[in-house]
UniProtKB/TrEMBL annotation:
InterPro entries: Cys_Synth/Cystath_Beta-Synth, P-phosphate_BS, TrpB-like_PALP, TrpB-like_PALP_sf. This is Cysteine synthase A. Its cofactor is pyridoxal 5'-phosphate. CDD domains: CBS_like. PROSITE patterns: CYS_SYNTHASE. Residues 12-308 form the Tryptophan synthase beta chain-like PALP domain. SUPFAM superfamilies: Tryptophan synthase beta subunit-like PLP-dependent enzymes. Keywords: Pyridoxal phosphate. Signal peptide: none annotated.
């Protein structure tokens, strides 16, 4: 029996997450689909990595001093990661969120001791957007930093230095493709850049939800969106600093219904309770796997990100009334509840 790893610092619990072979998606794609279990991080999401790198980078540059405050605008998961990292390092946290995000994320942030500010959801061009609101709060405070996860490239460095090397090592240097959706762009760009350094033949794919503009940008060269998605934390309408020069080879657009189908199957068939962004990522991985199989690659290996736990969405994705209100299919085991 293998011994579990020992950590002498709680922040070292971030990263080194397991990689799991997903049976249903692998069968559907005709190849190997592997999921990086980012819900195993202390804050239960992939955003813990960016949170740690952003805070450590601010410390190294002398911008964050003892007793300081970290301020960020986020759909929730980055804020949760920042709150945990800040607690461990003796900082305070102020998080600005759109008020349409899941109740579980808001309750979690408050439980972690973060000061939570909620604002109405609006377009990025609006000065009251949650990102701009968080920036103004940080600028008006002493000894505070604005994390700026969208354009702070410490975010993607976390994935260049940790996520990509982990995937490469876990798959023993045989990776044929990687895909995930984009929120800030840090994960897709960081993993893509680092894997391309290992093997330029690895195919990097964007998996975009409806309502986001990047699918059309990489397909046609124009930032243009269509439709909408209820997925939290993904979907982008601009090229962030983290996305600049990202080595995107191909792109897929995935509907909420297709993503939810994989959320349901992974829970019912494989015992994984995940959020919608993970379902969308898995759907994209299946599409990428099928693409590579059709081109004659022998048993391709595709990796993707299982972003966070479904327990963060009990009031939304796993609530029959909420799904009906959004005109989305209700998981059959929820019945008429």
């Amino acid at each position: 029996m293998m011994n579990a790893p020992v950590r002498t610092d709680t922040l070292n619990l971030i990263g080194n997450t397991p990689l799991v072979l997903l049976s249903g998606p692998s069968e559907a794609a005709g190849c190997e689909i592997w999921g990086k279990c980012e819900f195993a991080n202390p804050g239960a999401s992939v955003k813990d990595r960016a949170a740690l790198w952003i805070v450590r980078d601010a410390e190294a540059r002398g911008e964050l001093k003892p007793g300081g405050t970290v301020v960020e605008g986020t759909a929730g998961n980055t804020g949760i990661g920042i709150a945990l990292v800040a607690n461990a390092l003796g900082y305070k946290t102020i998080i600005v969120m759109p008020d349409n995000q899941s109740r579980e994320k808001m309750d979690t942030l408050r439980a972690l001791g973060a000061e939570l500010v909620t604002v109405p959801p609006t377009k990025f061009a609006d000065p009251n957007h949650f990102v701009h609101t968080s920036r103004r709060i940080a600028e008006d405070m002493d000894n505070a930093i604005w994390a700026n996860q969208f354009d702070n490239v410490a975010n993607r460095r976390a994935h260049i230095e940790t996520t990509a090397p982990e995937i490469w090592d876990q798959l023993v240097g045989r990776v044929d493709g990687f895909t995930c959706a984009v929120g800030t762009g840090g994960t897709l760009a960081g993993v893509g850049l680092a894997l391309k350094e290992k093997d330029e033949n690895i195919r990097i794919a964007l998996t975009d939800p409806h309502g986001a503009a990047l699918y059309n940008y990489y397909a046609e060269g124009e930032l243009k969106s269509e439709g909408s998605s209820v997925a939290e934390g993904i979907g982008q309408g601009r090229i962030t600093a983290n996305l600049e020069d990202a080595p995107i080879d191909t792109q897929f657009r995935i509907s909420d219904e297709e993503g939810l189908d994989w959320v349901a199957r992974l829970l019912r068939e494989e015992g994984l309770c995940l959020g919608l962004s993970s379902g969308i990522n898995v759907a994209g991985a299946v599409a990428l796997g099928r693409q590579l199989v059709s081109e004659g690659r022998e048993t391709p290996r595709i990796a993707t990100i299982l972003c966070d736990s479904g327990f963060r969405y009990l009031s939304t994705l796993y609530n029959a009334d909420w799904l009906r209100q959004k005109d989305l299919p209700v998981f059959d085991w929820l019945g008429s509840s």
